[in-house]
Amino acid sequence: MPTELDVIIRRLGLRLELTRRMQKRSRQEVAEHLGVNKQTLGNYAHGRSSMTIPRLIVLCRLLKLEPGRTLQEACMDPPLPTKARIRTVKDPTADHLIDPCGV
C-alpha cells in the first residue's frame, strides 16, 4: 500500500505532467531545461522518483506555476484514479491514458 508521501509524489508528478502537455512542451525540452534525461522526467511524472526542491522550483517557473501552491494542491487533492484520461491538443477526439501510479 502506498504511503502518504508516495501519493503526494504521484499527485505532484501527474499535475506537472498534465500542465506540460497542456502547454505543448515536449518531454525532451523540459528534461533539458531541468538537466535530466527524458526517462528521469517520466519517472517524476509517474511518481517513480521524486525531484529535488530546486528542480521543482525551476520546473514550476518553466510551466508558469507557483511552487508553493502547486505543492499545496498536490497535498490536498482527492485520491488519484488508477488511470487519468486526457485529450491532447493534436487530437482532441482521442483519449490518452496517463498512469500516475505506474500501474
From TrEMBL:
Residues 16-71 form the HTH cro/C1-type domain. One of its GO terms (molecular function) is DNA binding. SMART domains: HTH_XRE. InterPro entries: Cro/C1-type_HTH, Lambda_DNA-bd_dom_sf. This is Helix-turn-helix domain-containing protein. The lineage of its organism: Bacteria, Bacillati, Actinomycetota, Actinomycetes, Pseudonocardiales.
